[in-house]
Design a protein that fits this description.
single chain; 329 residues; mainly alpha; 2 domains; 3-stranded antiparallel beta sheet; two-stranded antiparallel ribbon; 14 helices; 50% helix
């Protein structure tokens, strides 16, 4: 990325073509300046340089030293988080392979697993083509934004706890902040309960999902309305769920005793190499029942919800040695 940004000199009463070209040049310079500022801001966050600069939190540094409004701080914070979450995208932005406008589009849909594909797409298609692809992806897997506001002390505590979680490796290294918040809430529930449900292999909480019997459209029921699920999410849910059908007894897709035995065998950890998560555990059919797979323990393996969804997206497979051996120590 060039360290010099040249702005067109303003002069009134120029021909329309000249004004249009100058405006486009100025807007491009604005994009490059914003891109550069966010990269530096992300560096301050990543290395906690705000502490060396005499501020207890990133927010205090932004509002007191940089003169940011709260809204501008949260905007930069979100963009910096996206670059931290998506290192391939960050590198593409830093080298100029992907411009900032495209990078913002990519950050709306990319995950650590899909970022390479999205960066490649952004580098080879137009802004309009990328916007259409992003819109289609978001319509397939719609996301809901949840905003949390914190004062300086709360933010500092959050960042300190987040860093401690990373050091203890209690979550996968690529877990995002939503994963972390959910894991923390789950830990509070576990601490408050008597753990009888855990010992029996049952989940601590249940999520209600509705499926249309005619078109098979599936949605999670939330206080903000029904949220449609992607096909891979539906497949993952079908592996390990309790099914309620009108006029029929409730049934589990995996017998509870078998589910508990598989979780115990795998030591209540995700068996994906390098993951080892103990949160949001689900039991996966290695050979799908639609292809003749059984509910026997040797065809079942423990995965966290993130890894489970990734497998059903076609992004990962299970080595035969992984099934039935447990996670080990």
């Amino acid at each position: 990325m060039s360290a010099t940004i040249t702005l067109p000199v303003f002069a009134p009463d120029r021909p329309a073509a000249h004004v249009d070209a100058s405006l486009r040049e100025a807007l491009s310079a604005c994009d490059r300046a914003r891109e550069c500022a966010v990269l530096w801001f992300a560096e301050v966050q990543r290395r906690e340089l705000f502490r060396q600069l005499g501020h207890a939190s990133l927010q205090l540094y932004a509002t007191q030293a940089l003169g940011f409004s709260d809204n501008r701080y949260w905007q930069f914070k979100r963009l910096a988080d996206d670059l931290d979450r998506l290192p391939v995208l960050r590198e593409a932005v830093a080298t100029g392979e992907v411009g900032w406008t495209k990078a913002q589009q990519v950050a709306r849909v990319a995950t650590p697993e899909t970022q390479q594909l999205w960066v490649a797409k952004a580098a080879t298609c137009s802004r309009r083509e990328l916007a259409v692809a992003v819109k289609e992806a978001r319509s397939t897997t719609p996301l809901t934004t949840i905003t949390l506001r914190a004062d300086g002390l709360q933010l500092a505590r959050f960042e300190a706890l987040l860093e401690k979680v990373r050091k203890l490796r209690t979550l996968p290294s690529d877990a995002d902040r939503m994963d972390t918040v959910l894991a923390g809430l789950e830990a509070l529930v576990e601490a408050a309960q008597d753990n009888r449900a855990s010992r029996a292999g049952a989940p601590h909480v249940q999520v209600v999902v509705q499926q249309c019997p005619d078109c098979a459209a599936t949605a999670a029921v939330t206080n903000r309305g029904e949220k449609r699920l992607a096909p891979a999410q539906v497949e993952a849910l079908a592996c390990d769920a309790r099914v309620r059908e009108p006029g029929r007894p409730n049934r589990a897709t995996i017998p509870p005793s078998v589910r508990a035995a598989v979780l115990a065998r795998d030591r209540h950890r995700c068996t994906t190499p390098g993951c080892r998560s103990t949160h949001f555990l689900e039991v996966h059919h290695v050979v799908a029942r639609s292809r003749g797979g059984s509910n026997r323990a040797e065809n079942l393996v423990t995965l966290c919800s993130r890894c489970h969804g990734f497998v059903h997206e076609g992004g990962g497979g299970l080595a035969p040695a992984q099934v039935g051996r447990g996670s080990g120590d």
